[in-house]
Design a protein that fits this description.
Structural class: alpha/beta
Distance between the termini: 54 Å
Number of helices: 11
CATH superfamily of one domain: serine acetyltransferase, domain 1
Largest sheet: 6 strands, mixed
Radius of gyration: 21 Å
CATH class of one domain: Mainly Alpha
Order of helices and strands: HHHHHHHHHEEEEEEEEEEEEEEEHEEH
CATH architecture of one domain: Orthogonal Bundle
Length: about 325
Amino acid sequence: MMMRRAVLRAAKRRFSDALPAASGGVGVSPAVRDQTQFEQLRAEAFARRSRPDMAALVKCGSLHEAVAEVVSAKMSRAASDTRLPRGALRQLLWDALRGDERVGADVAAIIKRDPAATTHLQTIAYLKGFHAVQAQRAAHVFWKAGGFENDHVAFAIQDRINELFAVCVHPGAQIGGGCFIDHATSVVIGETATIGRDCTILHGVTLGGTGKARTKRHPSIGDRVTLGVGATIVGDIRIGDDVTVAAQAVVSVDVPPGMTVVGTNNLLDPAKLAARVREAPDVWAFDPELHLVAPDSDAGAAAWHGGKGVGSQGGGRKGTS
């Protein structure tokens, strides 16, 4: 077993070095990236072709067909009272995902950002955050088409996603490519929420609505946003590009690009924070890569809770321009 894991790790390193196209490198077209990913997936599945589920993957002809094969197999399990026929589900997933460049972008994002994702086979066959997003993409196609029958299919898929993956995402939500939902359990995404490209969402995140009006009432998330564990973002607000929302934070106001949010609507400006660290390195610990801050001493804790530190700026956008 240890030898097999070592071989897989070595193969992944060789693959990453030789085929940067698999992770959607600069200048690589989505078609080339998707084909490269599929060839790697099929090679990994072929090595285990004695298993029926792996043999089915080997027979697929594209990345999108392979994703439809995996997700339909999971969603048609007989545990559900609302189960959908396997053959019909596989076909509708394939039809909905065929040619969608976001699928390959999602795979590339997971391989790049998740150190626990060691192979393309593992990513596509076993990670429920990936499965939930692909199933929701299919549900969204039917939701947009409208009409009683299409709505029925969309909500049946949503119900199955909720039941099987513990992810409640409305078929009306719009999710950009390169989405990585890590662990995924208890993620809630409302009907009018939009999520930009290359976002990372951890478990327990809520993109919730405010009010009862059937209008835009959920957040709009920009590109390259990170939403920490248990973060709650509510209302028709805009979270700018490159924002980090810390674990358990509550956000109900617009957040400008590049900011970090902690606590309740407490915005931290990384540029100002860096200057604060230079002035008082004994008070603040600062990770410039993640834009996260934590108190590093009793004095730091006092500043964090409303003393002299940047953390005392208060709710909303005041003092963050």
